[in-house]
Every structure is written in C-alpha cells, then in structure tokens.
Amino acid sequence: MISMVRFLLPLMLMAVPGWVYAAEMRVAVTTSFHNSGLSDVLLPQIKQDLDIDARLIVVGTGQALKLGRAGDVDAILVHSKKAEELFVEEGYGTHRREIMYNDFVIIGPSSDSAKVAAVTSVNAAFSAISASKPIFVSRGDDSGTHRKELALWKLAGLDSNAFEPNWYRAVGSGMGAALNTASGMNAYIMSDRASWLKFKNKGDLKLLFSGDPVLFNQYAYLPVNPAKHPHVHNEMAKALENWLVGKKAQTMIGAYKISDETLFIPNATPN
C-alpha cells in the first residue's frame, strides 16, 4: 500500500490545478566558475526570468566536454578555447558563444623563494619556479586551468612531464581543493583570479604575479547539439544563452565583486 502511494503521489500532484513546475536543464560548468560564487547570484535570476531550474554539474573542462559528448548535459560553460572549438567541429556543440573573461594568476608563499614577484613575464615566472623547485601544486585534472598551466610550461620551454614529484605535485582535484592543498603546503599554484579572490583559507599565500596577456582566461557557453543527442533540452539551452548574453546578465556579471575587486568582465556579443 505504501509503495503504491509513493508511485501515485507524483502523478496526483501533477494533476493539481494551479501547481507550476519549473523546467530543469543540466549545465556542466567549471569548478573555477562555481567556486567564484557567481553562480549563486545568477541562478535565482535565471529561475525568476526564465522559469528554468539550471542544475549545475561542477567538473573540470575535460570532464564537462566528455559529458557534452555523451549527451549527459544540455550545455556546457568552460574555458579552454581549442578544446571548445574541436567540440563544435566534431558536431557535439551547435556553436561557441563567449560570455565573460578574467585572468590566471600565480600564487605562492609570501617568502617567495623562487622570486616570482620580481619577474616581468609568465615565461620568466615558470622558469624561476622550475629552476628553484619549490613545491608547486598542479590541479592535474584535465581542467581548463590545468590545460593552460601545461601550455605555459611548454611556452617557457619546459617539459612538465619530466618534473620530479617531490616538488611538482599533481593533485587531480578542482580549484578550491587544489588551493587548499597549496595553502596547507605553503606552495606555489596557478589559479584563476576569481577562485583566488573567493578562497578564504589563504594562510601565508599571496598573489605574486599577474598581468601577462597570455594569462587571459575566456569563458564560453556551448549548447549540446540535438542532432547528436535528440533528447537534450535545446530550446532551454538557447533560452539560457540568450539570457546570458543579454543586458541584465552581462550587467550582473560585471557588477559581481569580492573585496571591491571585479571577478569577471562580461564580453558577450549581443544578439
């Protein structure tokens, strides 16, 4: 009898006049976007304006792209341009729409044994870390941040695959967890600026280097292609995209601050 009630109750509730249920869609987003706290600001407004419950699947960019390829989400919001363009070229995404950007920064102990704060380029910063070999925490999780870090070692003429594990620690975790590890070990780490500003357990860590144009960090929105996965909620994905590039959302993104510092710069091209 109890099991029958449990089965019938949802059907009975659906039939009650006046009851309204918001539609739900799944969006894979990066841990850096979620850690910033911006999603806590945007989601209630999305629900109010679109009557859509956007359920966030918080993962690294690599995993977000895998979820999109499998049709397990309706859209993705990530930050690894080459991988995003390949996702669209292979037909898994209908298109790529830029939404906002920030930058990457290099964090380290205030003593700064590698003298990163004294350099003038990110190449010099990574070279200084490699030469002095202080503990460096890498996310190691195939996220957009991890991919960018690997690209920067290569740009500096360094092979990260050859780094000794006694100083180069790949932790295989999201930005918040990686920052916690770096704080606990008083280590160097590369972070997106938003996650660093939101992070509370800074300990002795401080921002040592930023400002090199190569540290630019673009976020983009990609609806999953219904031609590949007919079950995805493409109309909701399009509605969310139109909202994200609209004046209200772009203003909210630009106005979001922590300690009077802006975390993201909106740069969507309007419809």
Search tags:
271 residues; alpha/beta; D-Maltodextrin-Binding Protein, domain 2; 10-stranded mixed β-sheet; two-stranded antiparallel ribbon; disordered N terminus
CATH architecture annotation name of the largest domain: 3-Layer(aba) Sandwich
Q: From the helix content, strand content and strand pairing, which structural class follows?
A: alpha/beta
User: What general outline do the C-alpha atoms trace?
Assistant: globular
Number of domains: 2
What would you give as the CATH superfamily of the largest domain? Periplasmic binding protein-like II
Percent in strands:
15-25%
The CATH C-level name of the largest domain is Alpha Beta
CATH T-level fold name of the largest domain: D-Maltodextrin-Binding Protein, domain 2
- Enumerate the spans where pLDDT stays under 50 for 5 or more consecutive residues: 1-21
Task: Please give the structural blueprint.
Blueprint lengths: L1 H13 L8 E8 H5 L2 H13 L1 E8 L1 H10 L4 E4 L2 H9 L7 E13 L12 H11 L3 E3 L5 H12 L12 E3 L4 H11 L2 E5 H6 L6 E5 L6 E8 L10 H11 L2 H9 L1 E2 L2 E2 L2 E2 L5
Structure report:
The protein is built from eleven helices and twelve strands. Strand 5 (136-138), helix 7 (144-155) and strand 6 form a beta-alpha-beta unit. Helix content is 41%, strand content 23%. The model is unreliable at 1-21 (pLDDT under 50). The protein has 271 residues and is α/β, with parallel strands linked by helices.
